[in-house]
Write a structure and sequence with these properties.
single chain; alpha+beta; Transposase Inhibitor Protein From Tn5, Chain A, domain 1; nine-stranded mixed beta sheet
């Protein structure tokens, strides 16, 4: 690597893979500490400073390696797990390109939204997509005005955008299931996925209206119990709650969810979308604790309790 001076597109791609491999072995270390020699460290510093090594080049290197590993995994279903994080670099006063990331107005950093390919057994394969940005400080306090904009002009468009980009180049024999937390509970995300034959599994937070003149949560809660599943709940360090094994009851149904009434007329699309909804509740919580419960929305039909349990495992 120390002799590397040229930077063709293919050269960038190969070198980025080597860079990723070197740094992934010691993710908490500096470049100098992670490198096996001074020559390797020097080559990595030279690579980082090269203007031809762009964010797109690095991401493409990740995607190519990830898709290859997906092909070799033997899996038919891969979870594309999306999530957003913020990076606080307020103490890096000389760093250029930082901006508003949602903390106080005088804090500087970055927002990062990633899509990670994971097997249904929870084994990470690699990165499928990533977007890095900052917010315009002038948009602070304008949440109400943002609601009147089309989804393409909202920050929540990241869910739709990452879904589309993650799907590019995926072999036909592999099926992606796009997984998101409560922030992904966006009507336009559901509509876009179903219109483009994409599967998803999202943690639901909004108790939406349905075509059956009832609210979503009431509809699924009134369904008969489909079965029970025993799971291990990880330790909650924030509340100092130890990990435990518990039993969850599962209910599910198929329902048509109505488009939000506050969607401006000029941006309306399909008046409703068909979703499968799962309701999961802890049966016997520890004394003094509220039972765990959550709702999941998916594009996929649920034919039996085994399929329902499998989807619950995806969402754990």
């Amino acid at each position: 690597m120390s002799d590397h001076k040229g930077c063709s597109a293919e050269g960038n791609h190969i070198t980025c893979i080597i860079l990723n491999f070197t740094l992934s072995k010691k993710i908490n270390e500096s470049i100098a500490a992670a490198s096996e020699s001074k020559g390797e460290a020097k080559a990595i510093y030279r690579l980082v400073k090269n203007n031809k090594v762009t964010e797109e080049v690095v991401l493409n290197a990740h995607r190519k390696a990830t898709i290859q590993q997906m092909k070799e995994s033997g899996e038919q279903i891969i979870l594309s797990i999306q999530d957003t994080t913020t990076l606080n670099y307020s103490s890096h006063t000389k760093t250029e390109g930082l901006g508003d990331f949602g903390a106080s107005a005088d804090c500087k950093g970055l927002i990062v939204h990633s899509a990670l390919a994971v097997t249904t057994q929870g084994i990470a394969i690699g990165l499928l997509d990533q977007k890095i940005w900052t917010r315009d400080p002038a948009e602070r306090g304008k949440r109400k005005e943002k609601r009147q904009k089309p989804i393409e002009e909202k920050e929540s468009y990241k869910w739709l955008e990452s879904m589309d980009k993650s799907q590019l180049g995926i072999p036909k024999e592999l099926r992606l299931v796009h997984v998101g937390d409560r922030e992904a509970d966006v009507y336009e995300f559901y509509d876009h996925a179903i219109s483009n034959d994409q599967d998803f599994l999202v943690r639901v937070v909004q108790n939406r209206k349905t075509t059956e003149a009832c609210k979503l949560f009431d509809k699924v809660k009134n369904e008969p119990s489909a079965g029970e599943i025993i799971v291990e709940i990880p330790r909650d360090t924030r509340r100092n709650v130890p990990k435990r094994t518990t039993t969850l009851e599962i209910k599910y149904c198929r329902v048509n969810v109505l488009e939000p009434v506050n969607t401006p007329k000029e941006f309306r699309k399909n008046a409703s979308v068909a979703l499968s909804i799962l309701y999961v509740q802890e049966i016997n919580p520890p004394k003094g604790m509220e039972p765990i419960e959550w709702y999941l929305a998916t594009s996929m039909d649920i034919a039996n309790v085994d399929e329902a349990m499998e989807l619950v495992r995806y969402g754990l």
